[in-house]
Amino acid sequence: MLLAAAVFSHWLLDALVHRPELPLAGTGSPAIGLSLWNAMPFALAVEAAIALAGLWLFLRGSGLPRSRAVMLALLVMATLAFTIAGMTVAPAPPSALAMAASSLVTIAVLCALVAWLVHGRSR
C-alpha cells in the first residue's frame, strides 16, 4: 500500500511539471500535465517547497537525534542545490542512457546516506 501511495503521489507531482504527456490510463488515454517547467524559477521553487515540507514532516515524527536531523537537513539542501544547478546551468546529458545511469547512481547513493542517517541512529 505504501508503494502504491508513493507511485501515485509521484505521478501527481509529475503532473505539475510535465507538459501534457502523462497518460491517465495507459496508451491512448487522455494525457495530463500542467507544464510548470515552462516557468523554471517557479517550478524549482515548488520542488524545493515540496522537498522541505517532506523533510519537516519526516523530522517531526522521526525521533532522530538533533545531530542526525541536522545532517539529514543538510543532505536535503545539498540535493536541492545540485538539482537546481543541474536544471539551470549544467549542460544537457550526452544521452538518455547517461541521464538514466546518473539518476540511478544518485538515487542509490542518496538512499544509502539517508538509511545510514535514519537507521544508524542511537536508540
Structural class call reads mainly alpha
- Percentage of residues in strands: under 5%
Residues in helices, as a percent range: 55-70%
Number of domains: 2
Q: On the 0-100 scale, what is the average pLDDT?
A: 88
Tell how many strands the DSSP assignment holds.
2
How far is the N terminus from the C terminus? 28 Å
Number of helices: 4
Largest beta-sheet characterization: 2 strands, antiparallel
Strand order of the largest sheet: 1-2
Keywords: Membrane, Transmembrane, Transmembrane helix
Transmembrane segments: 39-59, 71-90, 96-118
Question: What can you see in these coordinates?
Answer:
Strands 1-2 form a two-stranded antiparallel ribbon. Helix 3 runs antiparallel to helix 4. The chain is mainly α and 123 residues long. The longest helix has 24 residues, at 96-119. The protein folds into 2 domains: 1-38, no CATH class; 39-123, no CATH class. Helices cover 70% and strands 3% of the residues.
Topology:
Elements: H1 2-17, E1 22-23, E2 31-32, H2 40-62, H3 66-88, H4 96-119
Antiparallel strand pairs: 1-2
Transmembrane segments: 39-59, 71-90, 96-118
Keywords: Membrane, Transmembrane, Transmembrane helix
Quickly describe the structure.
With 123 residues, this protein is mainly alpha-helical. It has four helices and two strands; from the N terminus they run H-E-E-H-H-H. It has two domains: 1-38, no CATH class; 39-123, no CATH class.
